[in-house]
Amino acid sequence: MAHSRPSSDRDFPYWLVAAAAIAMIVAVLIATNDLYLQVLSIVSKGVWITVFVTLVGFAFATLIGLVLALMGLSRSLVLRQVSRFYVEIIRGVPILVLLFYIAFVGAPGFVLAWNWLTLPLQEAGLVDALRVRDISLMWRAIISLTIGYSAFIAEVFRAGILSVDEGQIEAAEALGLSRFQRFRFIVMPQALRTILPPLGNDFVAMVKDSSLVSVLGVADLTQMGKVYASGSFRFFETYSIVAYIYLLLTVGLSLALRAFERRLRKAGNNGAHG
User: What is the pTM (predicted TM-score) of this model?
Assistant: First the structure.
């Protein structure tokens, strides 16, 4: 007798009830403890930097990832090979190493190239020479996360696009739709169902990996906690608050993304039966 595999989507979310209860208890402990309140007031100043770095980095990484995926599926051999080269090389470099490389090698190299290219304009007094310190550490961190995650997101888009039935694309072509129209109306709406779950996972992962920007001294959540703990020696209290805030961000995002996926799936099923 065949048995269907249990689905975690149908289970009552006891884990969420337990997590919510723990979060409420911790919130009460923080609200009733002056030391925890002081730590929270300090480290929470870095939350907005964490959110900004994540949102901007992920937006750029998604855009570049989509372009790379389309290049990888192009009829041009050159574009396919360029896309494959980028994806394989970048995926092989740890994010932290990439962060250091962009910050301390890429940025100075860019400044050197820019000043060389704009030398005639500088001599004419039209532009000023660019200095390495003119490129903020926060933007170097954003560029690093963008480059690092764009390679992974490119594979997510490529897999989603390839999951669309080839017959539907051929039917749309037979109806006279252009390549852009086929992509917009046929491929992308169906590919999104496959793309959204791993894309959401990458977004949550970037929230956590944004903590790596603290090694550059960027005043994000982790850096604010590190500075406070090193000065007060309250390591347990400080990093407990930091971990608590990260958990609120990541678990909240995960729940929101799951709800959005369910709505999209339901809308797709209703459209299929309509």
Answer: 0.86
